[in-house]
Amino acid sequence: QVRFVESGGGLVQPGGSLRLSCVVSGFTFGSRIMKWYRQIAGKEREFIAGISTVSSNTAYADSVQGRFTVSRDNSRSTLYLQMNDLKPDDTAVYYCNAGNSLAGDGAMFLTWGQGTQVTVSS
Prior knowledge:
By secondary structure, the protein is mainly β. 0% of the residues lie in helices and 47% in strands. The model has no long low-confidence stretch (mean pLDDT 95).
């Protein structure tokens, strides 16, 4: 079945960096647009980054543009999110999923992983 396993979160000071990973199984990773989402406590899950199947195109939410970089390794069925210049507003649980479009909140699968917590605080 479809499975997403996110990792790499943690506690970081403002201005710091983290690299998140998402290992995928249960579908052909290389044939799907992949996306990162986050859910801030008390709010709906929101799109933050998307990448096309062969990494030729990416899309970002305005809130992370220029600070976050999405990438993928199709040989490892793994999605990455490099997060730089982190801010307290980036504190959230981060998830990955596939998508039918490069941007937007829609996700392909109803199944979600456990997510990985990112906390930005001094």
